[in-house]
Write a structure and sequence with these properties.
Mean pLDDT of chain A: 96
Helix content of chain A: 40-55%
Structural class of chain A: alpha/beta
CATH class of the largest domain in chain A: Alpha Beta
Oligomer: homodimer
Largest sheet of chain A: 6 strands, parallel
Order of helices and strands of chain A: EHEHEHEHEHHEHHEHEHEHE
Number of domains of chain A: 2
Low-confidence stretches of chain A: none
Chain lengths: ~270, ~270
């Protein structure tokens, strides 16, 4: 039994899809979300920069006295999960492992694809994790750098989005895959477009639900669940432009967001 | 007569179009370029964040003993030019004023458009400067947030780029404009696409040449030209992933780039 909050961070608002699932599956828990909007996007930055940003974001959330850290960004999970897990004094979860589990549960043909940012795909972490869990799985890993800006422009259903999805994904159609992991929190908003390009028989997989289940199991096993609280507090921080964050966040998070605090970066 | 270098900064590689023009028009001058790749893009950040980044970049260049600072990024020029001009101990130039001068020289109908990032257009600085110089000019200011990522993905000539340009610019066709300022250093790479959407009679204007002329005039008037040097040194810094910077930079800068140094940010 523990009433401390759970902390989450992402480069922007996308990680709120994880927070939404946490709020649904752990309705007693206080949640604190940090969107690192001053330094977004992470997907085209170097491994060193992403690791530095992740360490800094975690330090801020630790100051908020969290009991569990969830790295709600695939790029940061890919590059910083092990470093944070090994160095932080609290348990740490990422979205990478839940994503891989969901993907392997979904495939029958053992031929799958992973879509992510340039940094996520270049990290090779999804490829390694899948091979580790099932060496016979054939993996097609594709970076789709324009998907995030398309979603942020609200053009996810525009004909241009379809052409760009064709550009990235048309080569997959001849590969006999049956499941695709959307390994970036923005990509679910392009679900209809991606499905149209890949065809209706392909299953599109997201890690949010699986990640929340894992968080619940972990807190239960460590006896850290908040079992009595009936009015959870949701607090939001952004490292730049809290008003814009608040505005965009409504697309991703169904609960009220009365205020977003500025988390001022050291520089 | 002064042999100190000229300093330039941009969020990424785009400002090298200004550096290229400086190298052509001031072939004796040493030049130092800083690309703030750890914090790019600037175009979707807040005025406060952009100002902080600009101040930090300038402080770094001042440590390199520069004699003139050129803000080679339209977003940073729009938000930080006056603050830097008022506070730095050396002369400062931006790309905003040279851009406006070029635009007003190009128009006959006095109906013009300015294309830039969300932050540049929201600053209203181009609109004010144009009105100040010619109150009768009719201005259409349009932000085009997807142009930068399209160029960075190398898709500037893809059909999707044309559809996105149509999305942003088609409303201009009925406005009887005759000149358009490309108020972002990435946009000249979309010149063919923009021209195709707007039609052949529209003149597309960039500030690079005008900015270099202004730099030369300023250095001459202050007696700061380097008049004897015959082998200028060009030095490059990036705040993230110097190798990627070096690779991309070749699109924008025609001289050899033997090395790019990492400028490590305080965080």
């Amino acid at each position: 039994m523990n009433t401390q909050p759970i902390g989450l961070f992402d480069s922007g608002v996308g990680g709120l899809t994880i927070m939404r699932e946490l709020a649904a599956q752990l309705p007693n828990e206080h949640l604190i979300y940090l969107g690192d909007t001053a330094r977004l996007p992470y997907g085209n930055k170097s491994p060193e920069a992403i690791l530095r940003f992740a360490i800094d974001n975690s330090a801020f959330l630790l100051e908020q006295n969290i009991k569990l850290l969830i790295i709600s960004c695939h790029t940061a999970s890919s590059h910083a999960f092990h470093a944070l897990k090994d160095s932080l004094p609290i348990p740490v979860l990422g979205v990478t492992e839940p994503g891989v589990q969901s993907l392997l549960r979904a495939t029958r043909t053992k031929r799958v694809a992973v879509l992510g940012t340039a940094a996520t795909i270049a990290s090779g972490i999804y490829q390694s994790l899948i091979k580790l869990q099932d060496p016979n799985t054939q993996i097609f890993a594709i970076s789709c750098p324009l998907f995030v800006p398309l979603v942020e422009e609200g053009l996810q259903d525009h004909q241009a989005a379809k052409l760009i999805a064709e550009h990235y994904l048309s080569s997959l159609r001849s590969q006999n895959i049956d499941a695709v992991l959307l390994a970036c929190t923005h990509y679910p908003l392009l679900r209809a477009t991606i499905q149209e390009v890949l065809g209706p028989s392909i299953q599109l997989v997201e890690p949010a639900s699986s990640c929340a289940i894992q968080a619940k199991q972990l807190l239960t096993s460590l006896n850290l669940l908040n079992e009595v609280n009936r009015s959870p507090k949701y607090r939001f921080f952004a490292s730049d432009d809290p008003e814009k964050f608040q505005h965009l966040a409504k697309i991703f998070f169904p609960h009220p967001i009365p205020h977003v605090f500025l988390r001022k970066l050291p520089l």
